[in-house]
TrEMBL record:
Pfam families to which the protein is assigned, alphabetical: RTA1 (PF04479)
Keywords recorded for this protein, A-Z: Membrane, Transmembrane, Transmembrane helix
Segments forming a coiled coil: none
Composition bias type Basic and acidic residues, residue spans: 305-318
Gene source species: Exophiala bonariae
Keyword Cytoplasm appears in the UniProt entry: no
Membrane spanning residue stretches: 14-37, 49-69, 81-102, 123-146, 158-182, 223-240, 260-279
Cross-referenced InterPro entries: RTA1
Descriptive protein name: RTA1 domain protein
Membrane topology category: Multi-pass membrane protein
Length: 324
């Protein structure tokens, strides 16, 4: 296929460099393969929260598919805008998945279901909302960085997107402290259980005192290493984008395509790949692996409360009728 390069330094140009068709195809295929793997693993291990990870992989794949189309039709602004938005926003899905993963790890591995006094479910909800905030800021900025927009609007969009990346990095820093807190709590719990077991008359007595069987700490360490690797890759990518957009539209980074593939495409593909290799859903199996049992208990409690209120109401009516 012969592709004509339409790169130009004009303010309204869609491309300031000749984009690589081969690189776009390569990462379309790579992200396509990891997406298929994530969908297959989600079906096998029946983890509903994996849809967040699948969405991230689909957006990455879709971003490079549209980038491939944009390379073949370099004057098509629609393809260019779609590929840009998908690639810029896809990592936020991976971010959300890591947030949800830590919450489930706390629920699964810790007896008291807490880190720094915060329950696992609350941690998950808070950080997912934080991710939504970062998503909205970055999306609003990304939508302003279009070829049709004025230079002033593009600069404003870059500043907004950069702020969104900064917000995301800030939340990631807080999240990292929670992950370290979980690691310390896990170590303390392991030592405490070992001491109790040595002081107990029998291992069976200790197991009877526990609300459920606690999974091996070795599995938690495996997931922690995975989470730190993925977080490191996401942070690396975000730092790159922070530098890129903070230097403006005319920076060296924005005028050379290889920066994006080395510091954005490659880290995000590696993050998706390691989540295939060490699949969390394979480890998080059994009671406490998610919040389903807690959800059932909450529903049952609500039903019982509703039934009690209905019973009390009927008793009051009966008492009024009988004059008692």
């Amino acid at each position: 296929m012969v592709i004509k390069c339409e790169a130009s330094d004009a303010p309204d140009a869609l491309w300031v460099y000749c984009p690589s068709f081969e690189a776009a195809i390569l990462f379309s295929v790579l992200f396509g393969l990891t997406t298929i793997a994530h969908i297959t693993q989600a079906i096998i291990y029946r983890k509903r929260f994996a849809f967040v990870l699948i969405m991230g992989a689909i957006w990455e794949c879709g971003g490079y598919v549209f980038r491939t189309l944009a390379v073949t039709q370099q004057k098509n602004s629609a393809f260019q805008i779609v590929q840009q938005l998908l690639i810029l926003l896809a990592p936020l899905w991976i971010n959300a998945y890591i947030y949800m993963l830590l919450g489930r790890m706390i629920h699964f591995f810790l007896v008291d279901d807490r880190v720094f006094g915060l329950r696992a479910r609350r941690i998950t909800k808070c950080f997912v909302w934080f991710d939504v905030i970062a998503f909205l800021i970055q999306a609003s900025g990304g939508l302003m960085v279009t070829p049709e927009a004025s230079v002033k609007t593009q600069k404003l969009g870059l500043n907004i997107y950069t702020a969104g990346v900064g917000v995301q990095l800030f939340f990631l820093a807080i999240f990292t402290s929670l992950a370290v807190g979980f690691q310390r709590r896990l170590k303390q719990q392991t030592l405490s259980l070992a001491t109790r077991q040595s002081d107990s008359d029998s291992e069976s007595q200790l197991q009877n005192d526990m609300p459920r069987e606690i999974p091996s700490p070795a599995l938690a360490k495996k997931l922690l290493i995975l989470m730190y690797v993925v977080m490191g890759l996401v942070i690396l990518r975000n730092v790159y984008r922070l530098i890129e957009f903070s230097t403006g539209v005319d920076s060296t980074i924005t005028k050379h395509e290889w920066y994006q593939y080395v510091w954005d495409a490659a880290p995000m593909f590696l993050a998706s790949l390691v989540l295939n290799i060490v699949y969390p859903g394979k480890i998080l199996q059994g009671p406490g692996a998610d919040f389903r049992q807690e959800d059932k208990a909450i529903k049952m409690a609500k039903k019982e409360k509703k039934a009690d209120k209905k019973r009390e109401k009927q008793e009051r009516k009966l008492g009024k009728y009988t004059g008692l």
